[in-house]
TrEMBL record:
Residues 43-179 form the Nudix hydrolase domain. PROSITE patterns: NUDIX (PS51462). It comes from Caldinitratiruptor microaerophilus. Keywords: Hydrolase. This is Nudix hydrolase domain-containing protein. GO terms for molecular function: hydrolase activity. Pfam families: NUDIX (PF00293). Its cofactor is Mg(2+). CDD domains: NUDIX_Hydrolase.
Length: 197
């Protein structure tokens, strides 16, 4: 099972700073658990979520074809086995947004256990990074996975977009809202969220 190796984590913290480390348990539905298990593809147990800040202090967001109307989130992806971490993150960002990015800061690392009401569980790790871009044109390259991309303010992301994510009633969208909150706390200061919030 592919995780980010401890030596690589040490290198990332030397290059991009020590992240805030959080441990969460998040309840999700059975169909969502199948999505988590499918995304593992036998090797993956992590995602890297990018808070890409562009000109005018706007953040890049994406939506997938399966998302309900009004649902947007920060782009994310996985680093493949044997792939350089920075190369993997810049590849994923380009696929999902069309932007060339520069990683700037390791914001938060979240160790989460996804649980279903019936007691099924899966561990996962999300690595949240601040990235910068000079680009302004959002042109996702992976049209099968990404239905659209747009710019947003951080306040919109943690306000109306957060409310829309929570209104879906889905655990994985709730988790994404919590990731956005954690990144916002790292960027602006303030309390870090907990899954019970």
């Amino acid at each position: 099972m592919h995780t980010v190796h401890p030596q690589l984590l040490a290198d990332l913290t030397r290059r991009f700073g020590m992240p805030r480390v959080l441990h969460w348990e998040v309840e999700i539905g059975p169909a969502e658990m199948e999505m988590v298990r499918a995304s593992r593809r036998g090797w993956r147990s992590h995602d890297v979520t990018f808070f890409i800040i562009g000109p005018h202090a706007l953040v890049a967001l994406i939506r997938k074809p399966s998302f309900p109307p009004g649902v947007w989130r920060a782009p994310s992806g996985g680093v493949n086995p044997g792939e350089d971490f920075v190369a993997g993150t810049t590849r994923e960002a380009a696929e999902e947004t069309g932007l060339d990015i520069t990683l700037e800061r390791y914001l938060v690392r979240i160790h989460v256990t996804f649980r279903t009401p019936a007691g099924s569980q899966e561990p996962w790790v999300s690595h949240l990074f601040l990235a910068r871009t000079e680009g302004t044109r959002l042109l996702p390259r992976d049209h099968g996975e990404i239905a659209g991309a747009r710019w947003s303010t951080l306040e919109e992301l943690t306000g109306p977009i957060r409310r829309r994510l929570l209104a879906t009633g889905r655990g994985l969208f709730r988790y994404r809202a919590l990731l956005h909150d954690a990144a916002y706390a790292a960027l602006r200061g303030g309390p870090y969220p907990a899954p019970a919030e």
